[in-house]
């Protein structure tokens, strides 16, 4: 079957490869011509070939393997948070402890009321007022508007869609939260990696991303996933100074750990920044199945975000909104959330100390998981742990910079381990983490 690629524009070339793939002329694993070779064969500019391959990569149709070239993708499943089924002891999931999620039963009887009909306000008045007070305490903006979405990932997807067009650049932390990687790639945007160190997103990395023309920045101010680091006040101030010359770049802050965090909120959003969104999901403390996030945004972004909601779900269920409000304003529930925060911090600190005693380092200071540094590659260590009965998540799944080489970090979720399991994992990790 003829597998000749044709076209004179990036779109035509991408459509040609797509058609060849659909007809079976190109199969998973087949290598495509190099950019230089393709440009010469078709008589087009090299940048045109680069753009065509970028479109195909963003659509998930091809995979770049660096010096090994570009190949047709095989439709392999992408990494996701959580593990559906495994016989191994799971320390890869990133889940909260279900035993620490408040029981919603006592609140259910208090939320039933008059049904909400079409044309009524889409945000529960009580939840809106509570959210405004909560967010204004940390982000004192006179222009802050509240929008409710079906979780943080839903908010990020809609925020990017209302502000960007295909092939626009987005600054992402590197390593990065899996859902942010998927959202950017599936939306057809270009991910620009910004390195993360022990104080959060780096100043030089953000400056380089802005110089590269990013139109949005996604930042995690606390408990960055996967590293577990939080923005220091000094770093946040330095990043705000860099962003001051770019007031219309959309800043999206995913403050997913909010009520559970042991660190104060430090923000990239300056007092004069024009486009921003602070997102706080309830999934870590009220449970992932609540599927609800609260966003505080500037008026223009709020209006556009509401428009992105209107053609689909229109609004988040008022029953969910009322349930979230009832729990968030309940003293017993808030006390339970506070105890959960103490539990996560204490268990992670104890595990970090046990690792340090064995010469293994972690930079994590907050969150549900730990970012463990190794002397060997993460995939090699994960395979060794698997043979010992553990399911661990290698850091490679969170990396954006393909030139960085294999990861030497594991992300481990250990807060629900028993003392005996903790001791065994530390021993097994020490054996698996050696160079080799």
Automatic annotation (TrEMBL):
It holds the Pfam family Aminotran_1_2. It comes from Microbacterium commune. Residues 7-75 form the HTH gntR-type domain. This is Aminotransferase class I/II-fold pyridoxal phosphate-dependent enzyme. It comes from the Bacteria. In the C-terminal section; belongs to the class-I pyridoxal-phosphate-dependent aminotransferase family. Keywords: Aminotransferase, DNA-binding, Pyridoxal phosphate, Transcription, Transcription regulation, Transferase. Coiled coil: none annotated. PROSITE patterns: HTH_GNTR. GO terms for molecular function: transaminase activity. InterPro entries: Aminotransferase_I/II_large, HTH_trans_reg/aminotransferase, PyrdxlP-dep_Trfase, PyrdxlP-dep_Trfase_major, Tscrpt_reg_HTH_GntR, WH-like_DNA-bd_sf, WH_DNA-bd_sf. The keyword Hydrolase does not apply.
